[in-house]
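Render this sequence as a predicted structure.
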Amino acid sequence: MELLHLRYFVAVADELNFSAAARKLHMAASPLSQRIKDLEHELGRQLFDRSTHHVALTAAGTALLPIARDVLDRVGSIKWRLDQATKPDRATVFVGMPAGVHPALRERLTLLAEKVADRFEVKRWPGTTTDLVAAVKDGRLALTLARLPIQEAALDTLHVMSERLGAVVPADRFEGRKSVKLADLTELAYAKSPEEIMPAYFEILDRQLGELGIKKRIQLSNTGYQGTSEIVSGGLGFSVSMLDENSSMRGYQLENMAVLPFEDFRAQLDTGLLWRHDRAAGGDLDDLVTAAKEIFAEPIVK
């Protein structure tokens, strides 16, 4: 049995769909199915009930899942455990920073760095929420700010901020308006930023908008948030972003753009602070996490 067999098993158990799991693993479904069969043969137990339209864990698969997760988590922690065993008295730690983090959260991170300066040198590291969460799981980052929701059994999450979202619209089409209704936007396309940079919440938001009558879409690729701004500024569509004028996302605003609150729809982006729970309670980051919990104890609402 190899670690890859366990990774494959956990991926299928998470998705309960071989095709979806294969896409997640960047491989074809056929070899993935064969690796699962190999694992079942070695263990002498069937792990999944399979039919044309249905995949479910067997009793043996259900029992194996927490064991497999524990093994993978322990392997993922080898690097930081080795670093802990050989670390200097004052360690350099990295905190993940997704795009558009509000200045108020940056201020709290500065306070955290000052509070733990005798034990840790805190550095910031940019990335998408997906990449930053993965880096915390494998020990490359100590903490990360991340756009919620995040479902990771190995990580603890502290809710640190809620930001109300509004419609980013072509200003010339909404001149004099202080707010918008969804009905006002049905003739515009919803401009979606590239999937690789968008938090998972925006997929939920996209489905909600579709259910409420916003049917047109522009899906961008190979651009950053600036690409969405170009679409809105040019009058081709609208997007959704932070209402607060102090938000870092306002830095992407171009001419002929306005951010207006919704009258009949509420959208809110939540941000959390995440860390590996086994690095906190009695682990190498115990002091850092304790300090972070104190500084971020009261969530910011904007």
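Summary. The CA atoms of residues 182 and 265 lie 7 Å apart. The chain has a mean pLDDT of 93.
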